[in-house]
Each structure stands twice: as structure tokens, then as C-alpha cells.
Amino acid sequence: MPFDAREGYAAYTYATPAAAAGASKLHLDMFNATGSGVVVGIRGLWAIQKTDVAVTGAVAARLDFYRTSAVGTGGTAWNWKSATPDVAGGNLVPFDSANGSSNPSQLTARHLPTGGATISHWVFPTYSFPEETNTAPYITQYNNLLPELPHAQIFRLQEGEGFLIKQGSVASVGSLSFLVAIVLI
Fold this sequence. Notes:
Elements: E1 10-15, E2 19-20, E3 26-32, E4 40-49, E5 61-68, E6 72-73, E7 76-77, E8 79-80, E9 91-94, E10 107-111, E11 115-116, E12 119-128, H1 136-140, E13 155-157, E14 161-167, E15 175-184
Parallel strand pairs: 8-9
Antiparallel strand pairs: 1-9, 1-15, 2-15, 3-10, 3-14, 4-13, 4-15, 5-12, 5-14, 6-11, 7-10
């Protein structure tokens, strides 16, 4: 049976504050710990270039998406329903206020982790163009980085799995935020 987001699954968004691009930088990780009692479906992933500041850049930021087998360390953990824009660590918000009164059990994420997040395997690369005078950032911020194919399964994090977004070895310029849409299955 194909997955349908309208089937009553609890849905959430996780938005990170902007962080400067940097060679081999760990931008964010999410981990579904053993014992959580849920499977996490990643419905969408967007890289959002900060375009309200001037940068001059001709080199896109390569962003690699990895599946992980251990929780990340360091960085700043996400917040639950913060009213502060760009809150440190990012913000987890339910699509429906009836989805629960607290963070999903044993599901964690952190912005700018410093370690951990043991890589199981590389999934795919993508690129985000930083130049604020070009239309590329406006187009790409609405481009879901995950494959949205009618024949593809939803990307799932079983218990004991996570994902990591790591920038490639070229530094690039500018600042990136990320938006992740998830469902608990």
C-alpha cells in the first residue's frame, strides 16, 4: 500500500537557523533512537539560502545526505514549538496542534553537530547556489531535495537510524537554513 500523508500520521517540520557555509561542515543530523516506538518518514528536505545579506559567490555548496547508525554529538539540540525566529538548534513544530504536547519520544535532532552521527552510507549529493542576485536561490528553496517519485518509497528512519547533512570539501559562501518535513509512522 503506498504511503499517503493524509492518512492521519502525525506530521512535523524542523527548521534550522542559518549557518555560514564551510568546507566539510556538519549542518544537521536527526536520529530515531531504539525504543522510540515510531518510524520516522522524511517527506521533504529543503536548503534555504539566506538572501537578505550580500554575498558574492560563484561556487555552489555541495550538500551530501547520509544515513547514520548513531546519534550525533555536540551542536545545539532542537526546540519544541519555540516562538523565537531562528532559535538556536532549530525548531520542531507539529502541522496539527493535536499531534502531541511534546517532542516525539526519543527522536532527536541537532544543528551544527560536532561529531557522532556514525555514517552508515552515503545516499545522494545536491547543490545549493549562494548568489543572492541570481534567481537560483529562490527556485531551489522550493525544491524538495528528496526524490519525490510516484514509484519511490518514503525515506524512512527505523529505530536506531538517522540522517546527516554534511557540506562537501569546497567552502562556498553564504549561509544556509534547512527545513525538514517528517511524519511519524
